[in-house]
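Internal ticket #5521
Category: modeling
Description: The requester needs a full-assembly model to guide mutagenesis choices. All entity lines are attached below as received. Residue total reported by intake: 302.
Assigned to: D.W.
Attached entities:
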Amino acid sequence: MTSLTYNHFFILSLIVFIIGCFGLFLNRRNMILILMCIEIILLAANINFVSASVFLNDINGQVFSIFILTIAAAEAAIGLAILVIYFRNKGEIDITQINQLKD
Amino acid sequence: MFLVGSFFLFAAFLITTCIFVIFSKNPVNSVLFLVLAFLNSTFLFILIGAEFVGIILAIVYIGAVAILFLFVVMMLDIQITTLMYNIKKYVPLALLFAGIILAEIIYLTVFKTSKVNIDTFIRSKNNTEQIGDVLYTKYFIDFQLSGIVLLLAMIGAIVLTHVYRPTIKRQNIDSQNSTTAKDRVKLLKIKPGEGIKDD
């Protein structure tokens, strides 16, 4: 255990990913926390891509993680916009009522 | 040894802050812990030599996305609620996920030990130069497409949150440009002692 290997980073990203998934599943009240959990999951994917790219000495993984970053920013903007109009119409962001978005 | 020690420090911080993101009652605290988690992953990326992605992560996530979250959290009036009010329903799912993570960790640590050491690589170019070499040549189309995705997200967010109010007075550029001096200005000859007569 004296040198840093890819396994360290893979297990770390796995743990972060599972924490994000747990946040998605356990959270039933707050819609903004769901968006934050998606950000955590994308961060785990980023950690995995970048560390694999470094340890395999292949730059393509880091380029891909930049694209993941772009998509995450776009997703956050759209999700927060939907959240704002939902709050404007309903006055709350309770996740149990969100199936009323379709009418 | 320094590398491994700092890895474990930052990794422990990252996992702790991620847990705090999920379990804090106040959404503002969640956002701030999210910032801390991104900062820790930035440190991790810099630690293994991916400086460009690390700094971009700090700029994009901490500077833009987390601040966006913070604005929305502070703008909306959210009641502080507890997270888990019915946890028993999710115990089988939790056990399934725990089993998956345990199996993967055992598989990795026992059967598939990676022997690649980070100190053995000798890089001729620095990290930013390496990324720039492929980003603008091999991934040129993808680069442009990600720009279009960002533009689309911007337009979508504006269209979604824009409120149209018909009472607002707007500038009508066509009618402004089509007016001439005759419509606005009149030359009057005022005789002494008569004043201006209204038409």
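Resolution: model delivered.
Comment from assignee: The helical segments of chain A are 6-26, 31-55, 60-90.
Ticket closed.
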